Automatic annotation (TrEMBL):
<protein>
    <recommendedName>
        <fullName>Cyanocobalamin reductase / alkylcobalamin dealkylase</fullName>
        <ecNumber>1.16.1.6</ecNumber>
        <ecNumber>2.5.1.151</ecNumber>
    </recommendedName>
</protein>
<dbReference type="GO" id="GO:0009235">
    <property type="term" value="P:cobalamin metabolic process"/>
</dbReference>
<keyword id="KW-0846">Cobalamin</keyword>
<dbReference type="GO" id="GO:0033787">
    <property type="term" value="F:cyanocobalamin reductase (cyanide-eliminating) (NADP+) activity"/>
</dbReference>
<dbReference type="Pfam" id="PF16690">
    <property type="entry name" value="MMACHC"/>
</dbReference>
<dbReference type="GO" id="GO:0071949">
    <property type="term" value="F:FAD binding"/>
</dbReference>
<dbReference type="InterPro" id="IPR032037">
    <property type="entry name" value="MMACHC"/>
</dbReference>
<dbReference type="GO" id="GO:0005737">
    <property type="term" value="C:cytoplasm"/>
</dbReference>
<keyword id="KW-0963">Cytoplasm</keyword>
<dbReference type="GO" id="GO:0032451">
    <property type="term" value="F:demethylase activity"/>
</dbReference>
<keyword id="KW-0521">NADP</keyword>
<keyword id="KW-0285">Flavoprotein</keyword>
<keyword id="KW-0560">Oxidoreductase</keyword>
<keyword id="KW-0288">FMN</keyword>
<comment type="similarity">
    <text>Belongs to the MMACHC family.</text>
</comment>
<keyword id="KW-0170">Cobalt</keyword>
<dbReference type="GO" id="GO:0031419">
    <property type="term" value="F:cobalamin binding"/>
</dbReference>
Length: 262
């Protein structure tokens, strides 16, 4: 296997390619992720293997998604956003890593057991991309035994981003000299963490959890309208925007009913 010398170079090239498309990449060691997850969720790769998390920033919608709709008219077999993200990431990987053996897992992909291929928020935390705030981060949680879902906050984007994919570079092993980045604890006060989890669990539809810290960049009105629209009705919205032909909408609707909110 190749060793770490090539890793920063590979990540730098990918980072430039993805940045132009409104995405960010964060490398980390596979073993670090496995140390935080139960065995059933482990990634079955070398502990020193190079992994990298990819997330999309608000600008991806205008930079990549709308032009994608323009050129594809959306005959897609899947949710148009998933289709677009897959094409964008796979083209960057082919361009920047032609000689690498890279496994790509997307956030929407499930194993036959119906489990996700990777735990997106844990991977975001481990890679240093965004801090994953959970009930266990609160000293005296006011909700007693109630289940509360955790949520990631990005130090510059708050909640205005989406985790898209995980790359595993099967031939690159990292040595001990590689510094692992910790996520920025940008919601450090206990009362703010409580507020964050309450907004996310009880009022997620109003998106106020995304503004728990001031964000450098937020979704545009058009992007908000798209993501607020239930997946089954997004085809009609795209047609209203002039992106889809009548016949495309039906097939897209059938597919997107299975989709999940972002």
């Amino acid at each position: 296997a190749a060793h770490a010398e090539g890793a920063p170079e590979v990540i730098r090239h990918l980072s430039e390619c993805l940045k132009a498309k409104g995405c960010e990449i964060y490398p980390f060691k596979v073993g670090r992720y496995n140390a935080l997850t139960s065995e059933v969720h482990h990634l079955s790769y070398a502990a020193d293997g190079l992994a990298a998390l990819i997330l999309s920033t608000p600008s991806m919608f205008e930079k990549v998604f709308l032009p994608f709709l323009q050129s594809h008219g959306c005959e897609g077999t899947r949710d148009p956003i998933d289709e677009c993200v897959t094409q964008t990431i796979s083209s960057c990987v082919s361009l920047c890593c032609p000689h690498q053996c890279v496994d790509v897992m997307y956030d929407y992909e499930l194993l036959p057991s119906r489990r996700p291929k990777f735990l997106a928020q844990t991977a975001a935390h481990v890679s240093g991309a965004a801090f994953y705030y959970q009930k266990s981060d609160i000293h005296n949680p006011p909700w007693l035994d109630k289940k509360m879902f955790g949520v990631c906050v990005h130090p510059r984007l708050g909640g205005w981003f989406a985790i898209r994919a995980l790359l595993i570079f099967k031939d690159v092993l990292l040595g001990d000299e590689v510094q692992q980045k910790d996520p920025v604890d940008c919601v450090s006060r206990q009362e703010d963490r409580i507020e964050l989890l309450e907004r996310f669990n009880f009022r997620w539809q109003d998106w106020s959890y995304r503004d728990i810290i001031p964000a450098e960049e937020r979704y545009s009105p058009r992007q908000k309208e798209y993501f607020i629209t239930p997946p089954a009705q997004r085809g009609a919205l795209l047609r209203h925007w002039g992106f889809m032909a009548e016949s495309d909408t039906d097939s897209a609707n059938k597919q997107t009913e299975l989709s999940r909110p972002l």
